[in-house]
Amino acid sequence: MTIRIRDNIGWVPVVVLSLLPLVFWFSAAPVRIRFSNNTLILLSLGQMAGLVGMTMFALTVILSARLTLFENYFGGMNRVYASHHILGSVAFTLILFHPLLLAMRLLPTSSRSAALLLLPSGNWAINAGILALVALVLLIVLTFFVTLPYHSWELSHKLMGVAFLFAAGHVTFIQSDISRDTPLRLYVLGIAAIAVGVYFYRTVLGWWLVPRFEYRVESVKAINDRVVAIEMAPRGRAMRYSPGQFIFVQFFQTGISTEAHPFSLSSMPGDGRLRIVVKALGDYTTRLQALSHGAIARIEGPFGKFSHHNYPNKRQVWIAGGIGITPFLSMAGALGGSDYRVDLYYSANSEDEAVFLDELEALAERLEHLRVIPYFADTKGFLSARAVSELSGGLADKDIFLCGPPAMMRGLTDQFARMRVRYHRIHSDEFRLR
Question: Which string of DSSP letters, residue by residue, matches 361-411?
């Protein structure tokens, strides 16, 4: 349980920082006055929604900066992004209710005044807030309801920072408790300034400021007609990493986009080179099959806490689905000389799709405590938690690691939960930017 608490401790400062402006706000005027009638109640609720929503919006921008220091408090970069996603959804809801509640307080006396509060006017502070809200609505719709190409989706997230700049302009110049109460003003503008600085660090100046490693493509080996293994050698300082981690890679070659994509490392730490395995699942990954020897790669990382090294229990079950085998290749290669006892399930639709089975079985022959268990849907059906329990002699004393299609990981996690496997013993490597 200690590990699970550790992996979620980041939510404590997030919640505290989000609610802290309310402490200053309540201190600025008596509560009995703020909530003395219906009009003031709506005004106060609107102000509270705006303060907390703006703070959460700033923290959402900060969490999106891909800073490795956050990993220790959320249990890995994938969980940082999941937290960013949740926090952003709550922030958007509160920011949306902020003007609606303020407008509702005016309805009993003047519907025209209520409507004008939501429309552009000569007040540029209000206009900045309206622009921020409109931009947020459009970007949220694109994020949640439209399937965009990766580069368009990445651009939409960069534009979230522009929406935040408008929101920061709104809170800076609007006549409100923020402008009248010094502690509240210093807090809100301070956290907004940090978020703006982080946005410029990551998005505007990231090419120059974000640390990266430069590698050169040494080989591109076709594993089958849809999977290639790309091996890279450092051009200068080599990156240090742990088995199971992932990186963001930009390749520089004509015909291939230079946008950064995440890939798990399948190479073993210590040999100086990096290997990633790419399955053709879209335009970008398909083009990588034509990557040439000598192409330059800029690498950011490493990221992630999905490694057997990070958990004290040395009796483990690893479950890979399809291309989800990649982090386990690195982890299995690092087992030599350790006292881990690992059952590795390699699940695929058919034996033809288990492209690294020979490599893993050869490794298992050398490692006494690694057992590789292939499981193919065309002969045995889909892998189930019950089958894993039976083949591994029970699960009560084991940690379980999952990597594969999201539906598979969710399904197995639910099955393990129904079998009373404790949640803090189940670890998944689901890195989804969207």
Answer: HHHHHH-TTEEEEEEEHHHH-S--HHHHHHHTT-STT-EEEEES-HHHHHH
